[in-house]
Amino acid sequence: MFQKGLKGVVAVHTKVGLVDGDNGILRYRGVDVKELVLDYSFEEVAYFLLYNNLPSENELQLFTNKLIKGRTLPEYVQTIIDTLPSTASIMDAMRTAISAFGTTGFLEKDTMEQAIHLTGALPVIIARHYRNQQELPIIEQNSDFSHTENYLWMLQGTSPSLAQVEALETYLKLTMEHGLNASTFAARVTISTESDLPAALTSAIGTMKGPLHGGAPAEVLNLLEEIKEESRIRVVIEEKLKKGEKVMGFGHRIYKTEDPRSILLREACVRLQGSDPWLDLATMAEKEITSLLEKYKPGRNLYTNVEFYAAAIMRSIDMPSVLFTPTFSMARMVGWSAHVIEQVEDASIFRPQSLYVGDISEK
């Protein structure tokens, strides 16, 4: 049976993640994402996704040290990034730099070791090219900082607040893994040919670059900036609905109920209420917009998706929109790697059929 874009077609068996859109459930390796996000750090959740168990204190320290080691880019990778034109997008810089790790010495490492190393390296790659684009001096990594805190440090050159770190880290943990999405599928297809991890991750990054996959939070940011203050929420949204315009940040192709990631991001914003006006605006706007959507589009059940609160969080930490998709990719590196490792164990190449619909007449 033909399904355009393979929608609904089961292509793999996986133990990495469960996405149940009908019931609004997201699980990492069988554990509800809420339990992981609320109780564990980025490093602990990443370890869990990669190894299928939570780390002991010693295992966590070793894992963290490996991530920190990955922050030191080889000189040739630094040179590649520094010679890219400023007009090259950050996603293109990421794709180029990650592919450059495909050297004999690096590929001799165990695949898991490669995955941890590249997870540690990607934030540095992002920050380095971004600061080059802005004609700002490079900020060296700080080994005393966590994965999330160090990322903000390298981007901004100042120590982020605890509220900023908590908000961004919640987002990163929630977006590490989300089933067989387009970029994850691309990574699994590449590795299924017995290629290597840098090649598979390069495929994933190239896929994530597409605006249909990784670019939605920027549109939500435009909406929040148009609203600006609580008193304008109803005016702005009613005008859009009367014109038949889409309200960005509401509705999801998979989730038919509330996106569980959105619920947890909302809770993070509520916990941080009063710490940032953009987080406060987002929580107030959601209530008003949901009410208006029910009025103008009854029965559609349009709830906030992960991009709505992601945009508020990005704005609260002064992150420009060009960094939204790279930051999303920084989190998804963990999920991509977990899927790649699982696909290696399966050892089955993807080879779907195509249906020829062209001219069959003799020329």
Chart the SSEs and their pairings:
Blueprint: E1 17-20, E2 25-28, E3 31-32, H1 33-39, H2 42-51, H3 57-70, H4 75-83, H5 90-99, H6 104-107, H7 111-133, H8 147-156, H9 162-174, H10 182-192, H11 197-208, H12 211-214, H13 216-227, H14 233-243, H15 260-271, H16 277-296, H17 306-316, H18 324-346
Antiparallel strand pairs: 1-2, 2-3
Helix pairs in contact: 2-18, 3-7, 5-7, 5-11, 7-8, 7-18, 9-15, 9-17, 9-18, 10-11, 10-18, 11-18, 13-17, 14-16, 15-17, 16-17
What structural keywords apply?
single chain, 363 residues, mainly alpha, Citrate Synthase, domain 1, Cytochrome p450-Terp, domain 2, 2 domains, three-stranded antiparallel β-sheet, globular, transferase
